[in-house]
Each structure stands twice: as C-alpha cells, then as structure tokens.
Amino acid sequence: MIEGSGYTKLRIKMILTTLGFSLIPLLILGFTIYRQFEAAHTAKIVQHLNHITENKRRTIDLFLNERLSQLMAIAYTHKLEYFLESGTLERVFTLMQARSKYYIDLGIIDQDGNHVMYTGPYQAIRTANYKDQEWFDQVQAKGFYISDVFMGRRNYPHFIIAVSRRDGDRNWILRATIDSDIFDSLVQSDQLGANGDAFLLNSESILQSKPRFGAKLLGKMDLGSYARFPGVRTESITVDGKPYLFGLTWLENKNWMLAIRDDPAEELTPLAHTRSTVWIILAGGFLLIAGGTILTSNTILSQLLESEREKASLNASLTQSSKMASLGKMAAGVAHEINNPLAIIKEQAGWMRDLLGEEDIKASPNFKEFADSITKIEFHVTRAKDVTHRLLGFARRMDPVHDDVNINEVILQTITFLQNEARYRAIEIDTNLQKDLPYVASDPAQLQQVCLNIIDNAIDAIGKDGNIHVATMAVHDPDEVIITIKDSGPGIPKEKLDKIFDPFFTTKKVGEGTGLGLTISFSIIQKLGGRLKVESEEGHGATFIISLPMH
Amino acid sequence: MDTHILLVDDEADFVETLTKRFRIRKIPVAAAGSGAEALKLLEEQEFDVVILDVRMPGMGGMELLRLIRAKYPLTEVIMLTGHASLETGMQGMSMGAYDYVLKPADFDELLDKVRRAAERKALNVRAQSGN
Q1: What is the CATH code for B5-126?
Q2: Residue A354: which of B11, B24, B102 has the nearest Cβ?
Q3: Topology of domain A5-64+184-262, CATH
Q4: What end-to-end distance do the CA atoms of chain B give, in Å?
Q5: Per-residue pLDDT tens digits for A227-264
Q6: In 3D, which of A449, A492, A495, A479 has the Cα closest to residue A547?
Q7: Alpha-helix runs per DSSP H in A176-263
Q8: Does B84 touch chain A (CB under 8 A)?
Q9: Lowest-confidence range among A167-171, A488-492, B100-104?
C-alpha cells in the first residue's frame, strides 16, 4: 500500500495546481477591475476638475473684462475737461460703486504722472506721482493695465485697473482701485468640497487671492514653474509632502494662473473603498477556493487510497486463489506419483508374505521378525495411501470440473444407484427425458450428488408406495436445461418451504438425517451457475426444479 | 481357480510382483506392458478376466477397455486407477467394466473381484450356449 509520502506529494501538487488555476484568474480579475475602476474614477475626477477650472477661469476673465469695459466706456465717453470739473468724478464713482461694492477709489492721472483728480478714501494719494512706475509706461503703450494684487500705500490688498486715453495731443489715465477680496469670493466656492482649494498665482507664484489652507495672501505658493499654456491642465503636485491633483489654467486678460486643488478625500475615499472591497472579495474568494480545493483533493485522495486498498486486497485474494489452484493441481500430481510406488511397495510386501507361507521358510528362526516387518510395511503403506487419497479428494474439490455433461445420462445413472431401494419400498421412478438434450458445461459428479440427494429425499418422504417423476427439458431465453423431480409424498407445508434449504433443517428423526443434504445441493447448484427451487403444497407432494445454464 | 487372468500395466515391477502373487496361488496369469501387447495376447489366448491400469502411455486404459469389450464381450475387465477419480471409475463402469479398484490395491479385495468377475463370465458363457 502506497500511503504516506507518495500521496502527500500528490496532495500538495493537486492543491497547488487547483489553487493556482483558481486564484490566478481571480487575482487578475480583481486587479483588472480595480484598475479599470481607478482609471474611470480618476478620469471622472479629472474631467470634473477641468470643468470647474474652466468655469472659474471664465468667470474671472469675464469679471476683469467687464471692469475693463466699464472703465473704457467711462473714459471714452467724456473728455478730460468733463472729469476735471469738480464733483464729476465723485458722481461717476458713486454710480460705479452702486453696482459694484469692490471699487475702492477712482483717479485721473495726467501724462506727467500726476494725480489730477481723485475720489476715494485715501486722499494722501493725491500727491503721488507715477511717472517712473512701470505700469505708467505700460498703460500708455497698451491702452489698459491690470496690476497684480499689492499692499501699496493704502496698506490694504488691492489691485488697480487703468485705461489710458489719447485726447488730441494729451494722454490721460483713468485708474480704479479694486478690493482684491473680490477674487477670493470669485475663486472660492462650495464646488470645491470640504478640503478643496482654489487660488490665483501670478507669474512669480505669488498668491493673488486668499487660499483656504496653507499660505496667506501675497505669500508664495510654489507649484512649480509653468510657462503660459492654453486650456486647462491637470497635474499631480506635491505640496508639503502630500500629493494633490491640481487643475491649472492661465487667465486670458492677465498673466495669472488659476489653480484649483481637488479635495483629496473626495478623490481617495471611493478608491479606498473599492480597494478594500476588492481585497475582501479576494480574501473571501481565496478562503472559499482554498477550502474547496483542500476538501475536494482530500476527497479525491481518500477515494484513491480506498480504491488502491481494494485493488491491493483484490490482488491478494486473486494471488491466493491462483496459488490455491496451482497447489491443488500440484497436490493431485504429487499424490498420483506417490500412489504408484506405494502400490508397488504393497505388492512387494504382499509377495513376501505369500513367500512366508512356504513351509521351509517357516522353520527359519527369523520367521516371526519377517512376518512382523511385513505387517508393519503393509500398515504404513495403507497409512500413506490414506494420506494421498485424502489429498486427491481435496484437490478434486478445489478444481471445478468443467466437462460436457450429458444430464440424461447422469440422471439415469443416479436412478440405477437407487433402483433397488425404491423397488424394495414399492416406489416407482419414471423418467421423461428430453431427447437430444444439449450437453451442459458442468461437473457431472457434483450434479449426480445433487440428484442423488433429491431423489433419495423423495424416497424417504414417500416412505412406501408412491412414484417419482424425473423430467428434463431445454428452454431458451435464457438458454437453460431444467430438471424436475416430482414426488407423490405428503408435500411440504408453507411455513417450512422457505426453511428447507437452511443448514441443519430436517424433518427426520434424530440420527436419520443431518439436515445438510439440501443445503449442500443448493450451494453446489449455485456454484455451477444455476438455481434450485422447490414448489409444494401440503398433501400434493413436492417438486424440485434444477435450472442450469447451457453455456 | 482355473481362471485365466491378463494383467496390463506399464509399471514393470508392479506387474511382475502381482504375477508372482497370482502364480503362487496357482492362478494362471499373463502379463502385458501395454495396450498393444495386451491385444496381441488376447488374440492368441482366451482370458476370463483382464486387469488393466487406466493410466498407460500410448493406448490408454479406457481405449483398451472399449476395444476388449467390443472384441471379446465375454471377457470381464477390472480397472485399476491410481488417481482415484470417481468419473473415471464410473465412466469405465458405464463402458462395461466389471468393477474398479483404487491403487494401491488390497490384493485380497482384487482377488475377490476377480473371482466374481470370472463367475459372471462363466454364467454368460453358459447363457450364450443356450442353457
């Protein structure tokens, strides 16, 4: 039996193979689905971010455009003289402020850089001169100027929008100061989520609006340096050691970059959920698969072991049978070979005994010794003969004979054995044997034994005065030969009918029968491949039916 | 006893000793070592009883039995069988042998059977000649 290491290796191999083939697809599936989801999710977020960034940019650009348009409208609809009149600027400014509360002040500057008119809270400005300032040249060259946010003289974060106008041979500038708070309100909104942020940066990464987290207004927010690019870009930028997703875009009217930072929680949480879900499913799947695999392979292996064991025991019994069969044949041969020498020895001893009968030898002093020796020789030869005959009998029983048996012959022979007995008891035995009954492959001696037993039983059952019918016939489908033995005895009562083949069951008095005859007959017929049945009714005799297969 | 016996067996020692034992009892006996030899002797002399071994090389005992019963129906045959098979014995009987004896044989038993076989022959002869 190959238990132990051979099966352990097989078990491990089976389990690993099944696990491999089950888990690898599972893992690939889980991984792929997760990646797909990640990609889709990220795409959605990026799209959303792009969308918000673009919208915001448009809003801010629109705002700046409108302010510019507003100032230009004011500057180009009136001549400078109009504004130099006292009170005009105040009126215009009040009008402007009525709609937009973020205007802080309004001023007119001449081509020499002097503040010629001013309305607003910072009267000290009136004395300022801007001739040397960069914006002064720019506004005159370009026609308009939007500044960055700065603290300036007002000590308050603000920015200015200025437009210049050529009036004949004069240039003059209309300049408005705007509270930079407006940007904060434009830039920030609920759309950003709980942890999102948005701010404006100028080309030197100086914040032009107040972010919710981190740096302060006019502080530096280094997101890397970006040359001006069209449209919206989404970048992952690490700030303070943490990576964030940013939507970046440049304003059209000003060299400011709008940066919108995505709410990391919003981005990460669904992914984290998915990841943990995938892991849980994978773990669950793995446990199931592992459990199932181990169970299945254990079952298969134990069945394998079982069938191996059965095979081994079958082999053993087969070997045993064939050993016994060859032993039987050997025994027969040996006994046979011994019987001949034994016979000769017996005759020699007998001859010596005969010679001892002669007169002259009787006188010999050793006569008695001779006689005794011969007796002993004969005795032990007989003893040896008993052994060989027993051996031969044993061998014969082990070797099932398969002869072509003429059943009719066997029956007739059997009847001759019992003829005298039957006649003595006035019982007639008649036969109805099918002519040309086909030969049956069987054991004639054993068949005879069975017939003898049954007919003998019938004779005993009848007792005196009766008859026994023996008939044979061949039937087809299945191909069988049927022997029926019917007696005119008292029959067998129903309650005894199914016990009749039981061992030691007899209706005879003690000492008259062993109760084994029918049991042995039944088993003989069964071993010959046939069936033995009995039909009887109390008071109407009994019929024994033997059926034997023809092939 | 005036019975003429023919012994047929291929075992020389056996035949020799058996012959001596019959002769010392004043029973005329001839011996043959094979079926062919036996048939030859049967042609030359009349025998009352033939004792033959069933297992012989060449012409087997059963074949010899068949020939003897066919050619010399009055001569009785007693079979000696060493391999104690009931089938052979009964088969021989059904072929007309008078009886069979298992080897190693008891001489007295054999003698008794020979006597009775001879008696039957004598009866048959008398019946044939119309008595």
Answers
A1: 3.40.50.2300
A2: B24
A3: Beta-Lactamase (3.30.450)
A4: 23
A5: 888 888 888 888 777 888 888 999 988 889 998 888 77
A6: A479
A7: 181-187
A8: yes
A9: A167-171
